[in-house]
Amino acid sequence: MNRKDQLLHMEPTMVLVLLYGIGFGRRSYISNDILSQTMIGNYFKIARRSLARSKMYSLINIVGLTVGIACCILIVLYVKDELSYDKYHQNYNEIYRVLHAYREASDKPLPAPAPGEYQVWGNAPVAPALKADFPEIRETTRFTSPVILLLQYKDKRFQENSLVFADSTMFDLFSWKMLYGNPKTALTAPYSIVLTESLARKYFGNSNPVGQAFKTDDNNVLTVTGVMEDVPSNSHFTFTGLISMSTFYRVRPEIFNIWGYVDFYTYFLLNKNADINTLQAKIPEFLERHKPDEPNYTIAFEPLKNAYLHSEAKRQPGATGSLANVYIFSLVAAFILFIAGINFINLATARSMERAKEIGVRKAVGAHQRSLILQYLVEAVVISILATILAFALVFVLLPMVRNMSGKPLPYVDLLSWKMITVLIATPFLVGIPAGIYPALVLSRFKPALVLKGKFHSSDKGIQLRKGLVVFQFSLSIALIACTAIVFSQLDHLRTRNLGFRQDQMLVIDYGGDGQVNKNIEAVKATLASNPAVLAIAASRAVPGEFFPNAGTSIALRSGGMQVFSPGLYEIDVDFLPAYEMKMAAGRAYSRDFPADLEQSLVINEAAAKQWGYADPKEIIGKNFEQWGRKGTVIGVVKDFNYQSLHKKVEPLALRMAPSEMLSRLSLRIKTTQLSKTISELEHTWNALEPQRPFKYSFLDQAFNEQYQKDVRFGEIFAAFGTLTIFIACLGLFGLATFSTEKRLKEIGIRKVLGASVASIVGLLSGDFIKLVLIAILIATPLGWWGMHRWLNGFAYRVDIHWWTFGMAGLAAVLIALLTVGFLALKAARMNPVKSLKAE
Questions:
Q1: Which helix (H) or strand (E) is 298 found in, with range?
Q2: What whole-number distance in Å separates Cα of residue 427 and Cα of residue 716?
Q3: In terms of Cα–Cα distance, which of 569, 522, 524 is closest to 550?
Q4: pTM over 0.85
Q5: Which of 135, 153, 484 is nearest to 328 (CA)?
Q6: What backbone phi and psi angles, to 5 degrees, belong to 553?
Q7: pLDDT band per the 50, 70, 90 thresholds, residue 138
Q8: Closest CA relative to residue 124, chosen from 7, 5, 241, 246
Q9: Measured in Å, how far apart are the chain's first and last C-alpha atoms?
């Protein structure tokens, strides 16, 4: 290469040095404007050359930041969806709902109910009473729990499980778009129904169905009066159709005046200038006017904005979210990005010796500190720009997988919203400047005299900072490993815990309380039981994990008086307890040998016996009871079984013999061999017996475990992002180890010449990093224990946190660090010492 070519390939700063040496580099001959324009123009050129010159370190930084930014974008989309629930309603800030507290009678005045004592499910008359008494309330609306109806249109017949009765004012509060029909009148007339778009398409295709009629299994005709858009996924309650409340009134008018009958959710729209606290203060007088005979019943108001993430009330109309999970994922996003930034800082400061001469020369020719700082910030921003572009592309690739994992729609259009685009434009600066500011300050403070004389070396402070950042990275990584292990241990506990009843091999046929089936229920059971694969069969109104009512129940106390409580209620037949293999703690189960059991006997669980003051369940056997018009004696106490999610403790429960018209489920314990054949045979038998009702079945264990779907998704997402955090930390450790090894090649060569073994050299190079990981274990253990202790508090039945979980997590981190550093150390230890010494 001739001298001209050498000059062309030199760094701009070196060219300036040459010019300065031959007399053309004096600042007096170059104007400040020209120099400023030249330097600004060169910032990006120098950044590009610096990245190209140090390909491996640049790659580590870019990959780390890419993964970190991509994770943050995905978590932001998830958190954004969690925080968006119900916000699509125009009156979002003015909508409230009524919470009810039904507390047991007491001789002493009771304090105000705690948040967990309220429930959303309540009575019908509270809505018109509130509207009549308080001008602050603009409008009220009610809807019921889902009802099950068999709808038939021409030759199409389906059992629908997500229809609700709703007031005609439903569309005055909630902002669902009506595609066909008038929202003001659609739910006014009896026997009218508004369909969601998906349900309308199921029966009528893409045509306008307004005016068409359904036949129902209860011999009624429902006329379609409207079609609305599907309820958005970010709604705290959903349905597939609305039946006019006047239809329900035609069937059971008496319950609309009973304050103790519970089957309604009540919402109201507050005037914009009204104060909800003032309204709440008037409730005691309101209840005194309307319910003076029930001092233990009260109501409270909850804003719609609290319904999904902040509500502690029971009996929600739909799924609720977890504010703790939102905080956890937000912290994970911050940690991931912070760890990626730490990698940048560590590698930039570690390589300070490589750039010391460049900085010394720049300062010698008159570069100011602020221009040097700007130069290195530009380099950091350039890396961040590249990482952001790659992260955005990575998000497009990973989004379908995250959708499946989270169960959320997360549409691509969210990435193209103006808010997200603004965030993406700002990201290179929000990430690059904070990550680059410390290395820029450190590098710009080098003293040119020491650097050019070769007397400059890394400071102890810089080395300690890098070690501290590595400790921080691995503390988070170890904590995440341990937390992931505990999360999956808890999820496994949910799936494998003995619930106190048989849930595997249980096939449940949902026939929606069909009157024809219930008329012939014993014959239907006998015919299905004749299949050799059916081991047991029972009928009930509900099965574990499903909806159940509460029943006001009086049982005699030890003192002889009667005490009223409202346990949960399962309405069952005589075969239910043996079919589910539930064990008795005292007394006996229902039996065909005792005809009086149908009307005069009651079985409760152990929790209910304790609620009435009987620690020994045997003592409540024979006590008198009264429940929903029945009188008799308690004949048995069943051992507690988890009929609800393991998030809750077993609550008091009464298991009552149901009249046949109240039954709606058949539970079949079946052999699992040749399962497809068995189901096909059962369907054939059912269609022959009850052709009017579709054969709709599910498996109890799968349905019951759906209660934990959010927990499972949380575990999968947590594990995925935790793994990526560890990957980014290891990426940074790999870069530091590479740099450290390169700097010690001469030392390694000398040690090998003097007889050092490969193992001793590997131990020497790995030892410093392993010490840092061991320190990280000590920091991560209390941090992770505290976080998981808080998370596990959300479960009534939880695993214990063992010390060895963190020990295993620490061991995993040590092994990861050894694999990361050990590979480089082994490579360096096997190198021919002649090459390293000759290179020096």
A1: strand 297-303
A2: 27
A3: 569
A4: no
A5: 484
A6: -135, 130
A7: very high
A8: 246
A9: 24
Q: Rounded to an integer, what distance in angstroms lies between the CA atom of residue 830 and that of residue 244?
A: 82
Kindly give, in sequence order, each residue whose CB lies less than 8 Å from that of residue 451, ignoring residues fewer than 6 positions away. Answer: 356, 357, 359, 360
Taking alpha carbons only, the member of 202, 93, 113 closest to residue 158 is: 202
Residues of the chain with pLDDT > 70: what percent? 82
Residue-wise pLDDT tens digits, 512-565: 999 999 999 999 999 999 999 999 999 999 999 888 888 889 999 988 889 989
Q: Is residue 699 helix, strand or coil?
A: strand
Q: How many C-alpha atoms does 283 have within 13 Å on its Cβ side?
A: 18
Query: For tokens 């008496």, what's the residue?
Result: 254
Tokens coding 323: 């504010």
Write out the E strands in 145-263: 147-153, 156-166, 178-180, 192-196, 213-216, 221-228, 241-244
Burial of 270 (0-12, 13-18, 19+ CB in 10 A): buried
Q: State the residue for tokens 């039996």.
A: 591
d(CA 712, CA 215): 40
Mean pLDDT taken over the chain: 83
Residue 670 CA from chain centroid, whole number: 34
pLDDT score recorded for residue 203: 95
**pLDDT tens-digit series, residues 766-805:** 777 788 888 888 888 898 898 888 888 888 888 998 888 8
Burial of 770 (0-12, 13-18, 19+ CB in 10 A): middle
The CA–CA distances, whole Å, from 737 to 440, 824, 828, 833 equal 22, 7, 11, 19
370 class by beta-carbon count within 10 Å (0-12 exposed, 13-18 middle, 19+ buried): exposed
Least confident of 40-44, 422-426, 753-757, 789-793: 40-44
Two structure tokens written together for 250: 């035609």
d(CA 128, CA 257): 10
pLDDT in tens, 225-253: 999 999 999 999 999 999 999 999 999 99
Q: Residue 642 carries which DSSP code?
A: -
């020209």: which residue's tokens? 34
Measured CA to CA in angstroms, residue 197 lies from 230, 245, 361, 377 at distances of 6, 21, 71, 53
Neighbouring C-beta atoms of residue 790, cutoff 10 Å = 12
Q: How many CB atoms lie within 10 A of CB 691?
A: 10
User: What residues pair up with 214 in beta bridges, in sequence order?
Assistant: 222
Q: Give dist(CA 665, CA 268) in Å, integer.
A: 35
Q: Are 297 and 101 in contact (CB under 8 A)?
A: yes
Q: Which of 47, 49, 61 is nearest to 735 (CA)?
A: 61
Smallest Cα–Cα separation from 597: which of 659, 546, 650?
A: 659
Q: Are residues 689 and 527 in contact, defined by beta-carbon separation less than 8 angstroms?
A: yes
* pLDDT tens-digit map of 713-756: 888 888 888 888 888 877 777 766 666 666 666 777 777 677 77
- What gap in Å lies between CA 528 and CA 519, rounded to an integer? 16
For tokens 């429960």, the residue is: 653
The residue behind tokens 């131990």 is 763
Radius of gyration in angstroms for the set of CA atoms belonging to the chain, rounded to a whole number: 36
Contact 731, 63 (CB under 8 A): yes
**pLDDT at site 375:** 72
Model confidence over 550-605: pLDDT tens digits? 888 999 998 888 998 989 999 999 999 999 999 999 999 999 999 999 999 999 99
Q: State the DSSP string of 660-717.
A: GGG--EEEEEE--TTHHHHHHHHHHHHHHH-TTS---EEEHHHHHHGGGHHHHHHHHH
Tokens of residue 255, six digits: 């319950």
Within 84-158, residue ranges assigned H as helices are 126-133
Strand partners, 553: 565, 627
Within 282-368, residue ranges assigned H as helices are 283-290, 323-350, 352-364
Number of H helices, E strands in the chain: 28, 23
Q: Which of 364, 381, 345, 383 is nearest to 446 (CA)?
A: 364
Q: What is the pLDDT of residue 340?
A: 81
